Amino acid sequence: MPAIKEHISLKPFNTFGMEVYCDYFTEITSETDFIELLENGIYQTQRHLILGGGSNVLLTRDFKGMVIRNTIKGIEIVKKEDSTVHVKAAAGEVWHDFVMWTIAKGLGGLENLSLIPGCVGASPMQNIGAYGVEIKDVFVSLEALHMVTGEKRVFNREACEFGYRESVFKRKFKDQYFITSVTFELSERHQLSTTYGAIQNELQAMGITSPGIRDVSDAVIRIRRSKLPDPAEMGNAGSFFKNPEVPADQYTSLKTHYPDLVGYPLENGHYKLAAGWLIEQCGLKGHLHNGAAVHDKQALVLVNKAGCSGQDVFDLSTHVLKTVHEKFGVELEREVNII
Asked: How far apart are alpha carbons 211 and 203 in whole angstroms?
C-alpha cells in the first residue's frame, strides 16, 4: 500500500511554485500501487487531483482532498518493423528526458517537442504540440486504470478524440482515468519538420545546412530558452492561452483593420490567430498584477514574478481575456488547468 501523508505543501510539485497545501498526498510508482490505493478508505472518501510534473496547472487555493503524484518509470521498445519503432514510456517519465532518450536511440518524431515541461502521461491529455508537431501525429495508444473500478483500458488514437490541446481526458473522461503508459510510433528514417516557426533560421544561425534530429532538437531548445522562462527561476506553466480559431470572414475583417495580424489557414476554412500577438498588441507584455506578470519576452506566458498567489495569476489572466476581447472581439481560452 503506498504511503499517505497529511497536510503536504505542493510548492515542489507545480511549476508555478505556488505555496498551497493538500489534505492528503501519495506517490504511485506502479500499477499495483494504484490498485492497492483504491482499497484505502481515505482515497474512497476524498476528491482527487493527479499530478505528474505539475506543469500545466494553476493552483489557486489549498486542495481539499488527496493529491496523487504519478511517478511510474520505465521506457521500452515494444515493436520494431522495418524502420518503424513503437516505444512505450511510463506516465511518470519526465517528458524532455524521454525525448532525449529517443534521440539518443536515433528515433525521430519527437524532436520538435523538446524541452516541453511535464511528464509523459500528460502529453496525450493535452495533445501537446510545438513547431508543427502534435502528439497525435506519433501516438499509438495509452494504458489507463479506471479511478473507481481499477479496470485497465487501452485507448487508441481514435478513442482519445484528439483536438487542439484537447483530448477525451479533458472532457468526457475528465478525472476518470489514471494514465500509466503511452506508446509512440517513431522512425529510424527521419522526416524532419523544420518549416514552422524559427527552426530554419535557428539552424542557419547554428551553421547547420543538413540537419538531423538532434540538430532540430537543439534548435528548438535554443528557441524555447530564448523566449520562455525557466520555471526553476521564475514560476510559470508555459503557454497559458490557446491560439484562438476564428471564421474566415472575421479574420478578413481583422486583417483589414490590423494588417500585421498573424493568422494561419486551417483545413476547416477557419483561421488560427497568434494569441501572443493579440496580447502584445493590447500593450500587456510585461504587465504586472500583484506579483503576477505577462512575460516580457513571450506574451502567451504568465509568470510568478514576485511571490504572487495562484489567484493573482488567475485574475491577471481574466484581465488579459477581457482586454483582448474588447480590442479584437476575439475570445481567448486558458490552456492551463485551474484548480
From this structure: 8
Last residue of a domain, one of 23, 55, 70: 70
Residues 60 and 81 grouped into a single domain? no
Whole-prediction pTM: 0.91
Distance of CA 313 to the CA centre of its chain: 18
In a domain, 309, yes or no: yes
Question: Which pLDDT tens digit goes with each residue over 209-257?
Answer: 899 999 999 999 999 999 889 888 999 998 999 999 999 999 999 999 9
Q: Which residues are catalytic?
A: 165, 239, 335
Query: Could you tell me if 94 and 110 lie in one domain?
Result: yes
Query: Which of 262, 264, 318 lies closest to 289 in space, CA to CA?
Result: 318
Query: Could you tell me the three cell numbers for 174?
Result: 475528465
In tens, the pLDDT along 163-192 reads 988 999 988 999 999 999 999 999 999 988
Cα gap 141→22, rounded to integer Å: 32
Ranges of residues in the chain whose predicted pLDDT is under 70: 197
Helices (H), the chain: 31-37, 41-45, 95-104, 122-126, 157-160, 199-205, 213-227, 248-257, 275-281, 310-328
Asked whether residue 279 is assigned to any structural domain, the reply reads yes
**Residue 212 maps to a domain:** no
Structural domain containing residue 109: 75-187
Exposed/middle/buried for residue 330 (C-beta within 10 Å: 0-12, 13-18, 19+): middle
